[in-house]
Amino acid sequence: MRTLPILFVALLLLGTAENLRAQERIIISGTLRDAATSRPVESANVMLQDTARRAMYDYAITGDDGVYRLDYRGDADSLAVVVTGFNIHEEVRFVAARTQRVDFAVRENPTKIREVIVRAPAVTRRRDTLTYTVAKYADATDHSIGDVLRKMPGIEVAKSGEVKYNGKAINKFYIEGLDMLEGRYGIATNNVRAQDIASVEVYENHQPIKALKDLVASNQAALNLKLKKEARGTWNSTLQLGAGYKPWMWNAEATAMYFGRNFQTIDTYKTNNTGDDVSRELTSFYDGLDATSSLLGIHRPTEPSLDKERYLDNEIHTVSTNAIVKLRKDLELTANAHYIHDFQTSEGGSITTYYLPDAVPLVIEEQTFADRRTDRTEVNLQLRSNTERHYLQEKLTFGGQWDTDYGRVVNDGERVDQRFRLPKITLRNLFTGVRRWSRWAVNFRSETDYTTQPTSLRIRPMLYPEVFDAPADYPDALQTLDSRRFRTRNSAFTSYIVGRWNFTLNAALNAQAERMESALSAMNAAGATLPAPDTLRNDIYWRRLDFVAGPSVGYHIGDRFSATLYVPLDFMSLRTEDRNLGRTVTDNRLLITPSLSLQSNLTYNLKFSARASYNELIGGLYDTYSGYILSDYRMIASKEGDISRTRMQNYTASLTYGNAIRALFGSIDASYYRSERNLIYGTTYEGSLSRIEAIAMDNSSDGFSVSGKISKRFDGISTTANLWGGFSRSWSEVLRQGVLMPTTFDLATAGIGISTRFTNAVRMNYTAEYQRYMSRIDGGALDPIDVLRQDVAVNFIIRKRWICRIGGEHYYNAAIGGADRHMFFLDASLTWKTERMEYSLEARNLMDIGTFRSAMQSDITDYVYSYRLRPASVMFTIKFSLR
After folding, report:
1. 3-class SS shares of the chain: helix, strand, coil, % to 5
2. CB of 510 within 8 A of CB of 545?
3. Is residue 20 part of a domain?
4. What's the CATH code of the domain at 76?
5. Are 489 and 508 in contact (CB under 8 A)?
6. Does the pLDDT value for residue 4 go beyond 80?
7. Which of 38, 171, 322, 747 has the most neighbouring CB atoms within 10 Å?
């Protein structure tokens, strides 16, 4: 029965393909000649438009022979062919939408020019490429190109610098066609000056590997920055120094960048204790190392849904250096390195309510204090060649992370101290090779990495001595966990094109071996520990081998439509050796995980994509350990039992619209999933102690989500407006106190964002977002939680040099009582700019709000939390630019 939805989608796709078959490629060509002399006319513009002349489908510029050629795919009955040019009288010819030859005899139209003012359009489209003119969106308040990108319709930029186009993350970020930053493009969006960029190009449906174009479809876009002529081939450096009070604060930044034809570099050093988390821009948004995760950790305050500058108490230093060199036309060498040192302090309180079956809810109140010191580094060296015939990538990565956390929790009048250490080292090598012939291609990819991660968690005192049954003079606990992992993933495919069909044979050989040793021991004040009993120890060797083989079949109608069916067969061999129990478990099975994907360019502006997939997830090492592990001071878990197995069905569909002429962009996304598992992880509460155990019990969960967004630019009033909203619902089963509790969780969102210019001297940005959380247990609904956030900032520009900014935020949470239900923040700044200097005086949190309180729901648990904020402060900054 699980295959029925996929078969249904397959039939739907075939029907769509047949419908699109009718939209054949139409070619309109011809020659332009002078009506008086019959000579060919060169450098004339020939455009293909709709009969209303509102949309442009294609255009060409005639050569010295006067010949032009236009392509069209669509369902229009008639088209307009328009000829324009310097000293040429405009000619318009309405023709039937079919392949044909249309010649023109044009007349001379001499023009006397006294004064010419050229106004570039805000956004233009040529096939799958959109070009945004930066000057149409930028103003004196913008510092980096990221500030301008936020005003462009269809583009979103997060605080970290991550870019999305029509709701989807981009897959490449180029500067003058070069991918120097390798996913850490937040460095560019936050540091490259807006005044140095002429235009921003968006490549829709971008396939980064040229040799795989027309073979492997993509529904993601890429972004390319085109620099102004004066910014190319010249160095530019900026230096920023700042000081402030309450507490004493500093802010210093230095950047240097160069963008040449064959060499590019961006180098930065940043430090502050003002709450600005500059490490965010060093996040890799593609092809980075796995995020660090650990079963262990201290109990930390829940971070609020505020901008980090309001609450982050930090002392951070970051260094990054990035460079790319073109060794020859199609061969690039890239080097990236960064280092982060950060110390953070946090303080907050929480009230957590766990709803239990046929019992009074369990309420846990905690006051939490935490410090974290982290040192993190990553170095990448990559050689890459990318042509239409071959692709070669060799990338070597070293990553290191050293975290030390200190925490203190006051629970029911008792104080618990925590200390956590995490050193992690990773080495990774990535190789990719593609060879393309006319109709045939071969691809090979190999990724190998090794990670070591020994961690330890110290709890003083242990609130639950019954876990150890230890003497009274050993009141503390020490949890150690040492993990070492080797992993290699190797895949290859060969593909052959026959007409519109693409036949591919895929193969992969993957292996992973991991050793995990853990011990939970009683400890005394001197740091001495007792031997851990078998129930609190683990010594597990885990190995998994996968040999994957299977065909995929694709059907393409040019760039208008593509459908791909992939049916891999995964021969899996799993072996788990529990050396503590002297037990070995093996599992060999065949997994079939088909997927079906579709992409269709319904028109030049309207695109549709869909995907249906079935997958089976087999539990890993951390789903099969028998000895208890203390993950934080009040949570202990054991997952002894059967190997977990999860069967997943996923269905997604997306409709995107991007009209450059109307500067109107939008998207609608829908998804549905269903998950069936053989194990459920049940929680038993013994006071504030949570015991988590794996129980053999079939259970399922499913859910759906629908979301949409509209973005529109109004050039006449220099305004960009955004509307978005969505709804999601999930059904799942929770096991608490041995009782299975069916639950439902809903989340609804709606928002609006406006960036506008009232006059040349007054700019305003406004956003508002509403959210509603609602949970149900056995048909009974918990009280819903309504949340509203509003942000507004008004900039007054005086004589193009003085900028006065006043900003405010409003937060509303219906679950909070008293005056904290509504919370308001007020900021102000004054900036004076010269050609190379910028002086700024900034005041934050002028109302001196000391604590932020909020509430939220997750499944059948309520959370009410508070967090200490940064006090009212003032900061003076000087910024100097070399150019």
Report:
1. 5, 65, 30
2. yes
3. no
4. 2.60.40.1120
5. yes
6. no
7. 322
252 CB-near residues (< 8 Å, 6+ apart): 240, 241, 242, 269, 270, 271, 272
Q: How does residue 289 score in pLDDT terms, banded at 50, 70 and 90?
A: low
pLDDT mean across residues, the chain: 88
Residue 500: inside a domain, yes or no? yes
Q: What would the pLDDT profile of 405-428 be if each residue is shown by its tens digit?
A: 999 999 878 899 999 999 999 999
Where a domain ends, among 106, 129, 147?
106
Determine the pLDDT at residue 120: 61
Neighbours of 532 (CB within 10 A): 21
Q: What is the 3-state secondary structure (H, E, C) of 128-149?
A: CEEEEEHHHCCCCCCCEHHHHH
The DSSP secondary-structure symbol of 88 reads B
Q: Report the candidate in 656, 550, 648 with the shortest Cα–Cα distance to residue 610.
A: 656
Q: Which of 219, 54, 205 has its CA nearest to residue 129?
A: 205
Closest CA to 185 of 333, 285, 69, 301: 285
Number of domains in the chain: 2
Contact in structure between 721 and 714 (CB atoms under 8 Å): yes
User: Quick check: is 185 in a domain?
Assistant: no
Within a domain: residue 3? no
Q: E strands within 207-329?
A: 222-227, 235-245, 249-259, 263-272, 313-328
Angle at Cα 520 formed by Cα 517 and Cα 524, nearest 5°? 135
| Phi, psi dihedrals of residue 10, rounded to the nearest 5° | -60, -45
- Among residues 106, 139, 163, the one where a domain terminates is 106
**What is the bridge-based pairing of β-strands 583-592 and 569-578?**
antiparallel
What digits encode the pLDDT tens for the residues 462-482? 877 777 777 888 888 999 999
Q: What are phi and psi of 716, to 5 degrees?
A: -60, -30
Same domain, 245 and 102: no
CATH number of the domain encompassing residue 544: 2.40.170
Task: Check pLDDT > 60 for residue 806.
Answer: yes
Whether residue 322 is predicted with pLDDT greater than 80 in this model: the reply is yes
Q: In 10 A of CB 67, how many CB atoms?
A: 16
Q: What is the mean pLDDT of residues 113-129?
A: 67
Q: Answer with the residue of higher pLDDT: 25 or 441.
A: 441
